[in-house]
Design brief:
Largest sheet: 8 strands, parallel
Bound molecules: 2-acetamido-2-deoxy-beta-D-glucopyranose
Distance between the termini: 53 Å
Structural class: alpha/beta
Enzyme class: hydrolase
Strand content: 5-15%
EC number: 3.2.1.-
InterPro entries: Beta_cellobiohydrolase, Beta_cellobiohydrolase_sf, CBD, CBD_sf, Glyco_hydro_6_CS
Number of helices: 11
Number of strands: 13
Shape: globular
Order of helices and strands: HHEEEEEEHHEHEHEHHEHEHEEH
GO molecular function: cellulose binding; hydrolase activity, hydrolyzing O-glycosyl compounds
Pfam families: CBM_1, Glyco_hydro_6
Length: about 450
């Protein structure tokens, strides 16, 4: 029998109080939960994460489409419809991006400069060269990269003094033990079984030590892409279930220690096609809220980052057909749906990656995230975001750095990188992918 979710919702709205049962998609357990632990008919109480059990449709009884996710990096495309035109242009109070010059990563500038020398068409080469002036985030994805942060902070500090401007350095904290637990392409250097938690603390301590030396430079950080979203939807993957406690402990440590040296943080919150599905919104909100309050509400936590390394539009002109069934078919809708669910004083401010969202409707499935074919650079970083919830549009993923190899013999091969909508001949994750960069340049929207 096919039961529509509308029917279940209508029924459940009458019953929960009377029967002490939770409604479809309602909470039915988790640390600190004192409400009903059983679900209305047609739904089963399912453990989502340590903080949240949820009434999900009993198998095959619901018309609600299954949530989809992308694991490491983005999928999607954006037709960027001028965000500034759709909402308020009033700067968000306390917006850490306001009044700051964003430090350009010399590492990325160098990658771009090298890439330009390989482009023979002068028009394309000139357009490509301008990408070096667009700020991206610095990924501290190995402990060996942490000392470079000190170099950049010193550089930003001296620029700040010579130019009389305030500088902001953007980093990604990305080195959890058993990283990328639901995919293969971005496996990290630390393992839970081999001292991973202590290694991670040491990694954070080294970042803190660098930042402490330059209290005059503002640091904005995205915290651990994909990790918390994996705890919301991927605990059925043994590696994720095994990593749950460690991820929570390590992210707590990062929030507390980085907050103590003034870092402004956005926890990674997946994207509209992952946590934006109605079934995932409440468990996600609960996870972020509990994690934050259990950490002592660190003052450096400013909010959440969405669409990191993904391809979704901030505002889609029309829903991409692959988003069908998810009312939150773009990042703006996702953010507007998630924000009111965040509780306990969790700061509902957002940044949204649009670096590779210039072209929309290019994926075959919403969960496709690897070097999506035909992607173009998207809306430039700006605080003119069209929403009082969004501090800034950012480019977190440095466009041109590969999402994952298409070499099926590589130990880090992930099948997503071999799909028909993934760009072929891709090198290992994080290394330069020249052909991909050139497409991003050619298809940039707005044009470079
Ligand atoms: C992770 O969860 C998402 C969302 O439910 C799902 O689409 C994806 O297949 C999962 N990944 C794995 C490896 O199970
Ligand atoms: C693919 O990966 C295998 C195993 O790491 C390696 O030996 C081989 O050279 C790679 N092929 C290419 C084309 O890079």
């Amino acid at each position: 029998m096919k039961i529509t979710s509308t029917g279940l919702l209508a029924l459940s709205s009458l019953l929960p109080l009377a029967l002490g049962q939770s409604q479809l998609y309602g909470q039915c357990g988790g640390i600190g939960w004192s409400g009903a632990t059983t679900c209305v008919s047609g739904a089963t109480c399912t453990v989502v994460n340590a903080y949240y059990s949820q009434c999900l449709p009993s198998s095959a009884s619901s018309s609600t489409p299954p949530p989809t996710s992308t694991s490491s990096t983005g999928t999607g495309t954006t037709t960027s419809s001028a965000p500034g035109s759709t909402g308020t242009t009033t700067p968000v109070a306390g917006n850490p991006f306001e009044g700051y010059e964003i430090y350009l990563s010399p590492y990325y500038a160098n990658e771009v400069a090298n890439a330009v020398t390989q482009i023979s068409d002068p028009t394309t080469a000139a357009a490509a060269a301008t990408v070096a002036n667009i700020p991206t985030f610095i990924w501290l994805d190995q402990v060996a990269k942490v000392p470079s942060l000190g170099t950049y902070l010193a550089d930003a500090s001296s620029k700040q003094q010579s130019e009389g401007k305030n500088y902001l350095v953007q980093i990604v904290v990305y080195d959890l033990p058993d990283r990328d637990c639901a995919a293969l392409a971005s496996n990290g250097e630390f393992s839970i079984a081999d001292n991973g938690e202590a290694d991670y603390h040491n990694y954070i301590d080294q970042i803190v030590a660098q930042i402490k030396q330059y209290p005059d430079v503002r640091v904005v950080a995205v915290i651990e892409p994909d990790s918390l979203a994996n705890l919301v939807t991927n605990l059925s993957v043994p590696k994720c279930a095994n990593a749950q406690t460690t991820y929570l402990e390590c992210v707590t440590y990062a929030m507390q220690q980085l907050s103590a040296v003034g870092v402004i943080m956005y926890l990674d919150a997946g994207h509209a096609g992952w946590l934006g599905w109605p079934a995932n919104l409440s468990p996600a909100a609960q996870l972020f809220t509990s994690l934050y309050s259990n950490a002592g509400s660190p003052s450096g936590v400013r909010g959440l980052a969405t669409n990191v390394a993904n391809y979704n539009a901030l505002v889609a002109t029309t829903p991409d057909p692959i988003t069908q069934g998810d009312p939150n078919y773009d990042e703006m809708l996702y953010i507007e749906a998630l924000a009111p669910m965040l509780g306990s004083g969790f700061p509902a401010h957002f940044i949204v990656d649009q670096g590779r969202s210039g072209v929309q409707d290019i994926r075959q499935q919403w969960g496709d995230w690897c070097n999506v074919l035909g992607a173009g650079f998207g809306t430039r970083p700006t605080t003119n975001t069209g929403s009082s919830l969004i501090d800034s549009i950012v480019w977190v993923k440095p466009g041109g750095e590969c999402d994952g190899t298409s070499n099926t013999s590589s130990p880090r091969y992930d099948a997503h990188c071999g799909l028909p909508d993934a760009t072929p001949n891709a090198p290992e994750a994080g290394t330069w992918f020249q052909a991909y960069f050139e497409t991003l340049v050619e298809k940039a929207n707005p044009p470079l």
